[in-house]
Structures are given as structure tokens and as C-alpha cells.
Amino acid sequence: MAEKTKVITVFGSSRPEEGHTDFAEALELGRALASAGFAVCTGGYGGVMEGVSRGAREAGGRVLAVTSSSFRSRVNRWVHEETHMETWQERLFELVRLGDGYVACRGGTGTLVELAVVWEMLNKKVMEHRPFVVLGDFWQPILDRVREVERGHASRWGESSDPLVHLAPTPASAAQFLARRLASKGSR
Q1: Where are the strands (E) in 23-157, listed by range?
Q2: Is residue 2 part of a domain?
Q3: Cβ atoms of residues 103 and 95 within 8 Å
Q4: I want to staple 150 with a disulfide (CB 3.0 to 4.6 A). Which of 24, 159, 172, 175 is the partner?
Q5: pLDDT for position 187
Q6: CA nearest to 63, candidates 42, 83, 35
Q7: 80 Ramachandran zone, left/alpha/beta (phi>0; psi -120 to 50)
Q8: pTM of this prediction?
Q9: Per the structure, how many domains does the chain have?
Q10: Beta-strand runs (E) in 86-178
Q11: Which is it for the CA torsion 119, 112, 132, 140, positive or negative?
Q12: pLDDT one-digit tens code per residue, 8-39
């Protein structure tokens, strides 16, 4: 039986347009993930989501999207397969469910919520361990502050003893980290 292609869910801002640095980085990330043999999954709309989708598709990768009736935006043209959820919350948890690993790119409050939900689910062992990467140093101050609290208090939870979120400086290093971490895991 063939092994199922692993899916990397990518979170990021819907705001950057083509020509913006964040869009270019998302294109590079999509290409790197597809070249590493991953399918990508995003929220399906514009900005970072479109950049990742386009990069992955242009590199021959499979592109999934999870959309919601909560948003009026249309799915970007690079998506192969759309899953539509009724609510924002259902969309978020479907994005989490589909991922074998995760990348959080620069973003606003929506991306912050996505990062926090995945991190908390990993920290409290609500789901089995899956690799999680933040791209670049944008989220570093938040990671540092949360870890300061986690490590300052004895806890049985994961983050207090072992970092659950890895910082990758480049799209290529993010893809390499995920490939190494998922190489030893069987298919889901």
C-alpha cells in the first residue's frame, strides 16, 4: 500500500499582494514544501495563502484549501481541492486536523490565533505530536514571552521541557526541518 502524502498546513496573512516580500517568501515556501514531497493546505484565500498555494502548484505539488462561509473571499485559483466549512471555528479545526505538520508565517490576529491553537493543542497533548515551524523571526518575541511563563513554573505540559515550535529562518530550512521530523513517522 502506498504511503499517503503528508500535508503541511500553512498559516499566514491574507493581506500581502504579489510583489510584497511576504508574498515572495510564501511562494518560496510553497515551492520548497512541494519539492520536499508535501501537499500544502491553507485557508485558501489571498496573501500568504495564495503565495504558498501558487508556489506549491507551480512546483508540481497538491494544494488543499479549507474555506468558510464566515468570509466573503473566493478561493485562490491555485487550489486543487477545496473543503468548505460553515463557521470560522470549524475551518480552523479542519486546517489543524488535516496537517501532519504546520508552518506559521507573518500575519495578524487570525494567524496569531492559529499559532496559539496549534501550540496549545500540542502543549496539552490534545493531539499527537506534529512538527510546528514559525518562519522567520516575526513570532520570536511571542514565543519568548510564552516560554518565559511556561519554563518559570513547574508543569507536566510539553513546552515547559521541550520546545514545541521550531524557528526556521528560511522557507528551505522550514521544509528541511519538517521533512526530517516527518521522515520517521508513518502515514496517518
Answers
A1: 39-42, 63-68, 81-85, 101-104, 132-135
A2: no
A3: no
A4: 159
A5: 37
A6: 42
A7: alpha
A8: 0.93
A9: 1
A10: 101-104, 132-135, 166-168
A11: negative
A12: 999 999 999 999 999 999 999 999 999 999 99
Name 124's Cβ contacts closer than 8 Å, sequence gap at least 6: 157, 158
pLDDT digits (tens, 9 = 90+) for 86-97: 999 999 999 999
3-class secondary structure, 163: coil
Residue 163 is part of which domain span? 7-179
| Any domain includes 188 | no
Tell me if 1 is assigned to some domain: no
> Is residue 160's pLDDT more than 80?
no
CATH number at residue 88: 3.40.50.450
Q: pLDDT band for position 158 (50/70/90)?
A: low
Q: Is the confidence at residue 185, as pLDDT, over 70?
A: no
C-alpha cell at 99: 496537517
Segment (H or E) for 111: helix 109-123
Residue 1: pLDDT above 60?
Answer: no
Instruction: Give CA angle at 149 (146, 155), nearest 5°.
Output: 110
Residue 186, in any domain of the structure = no
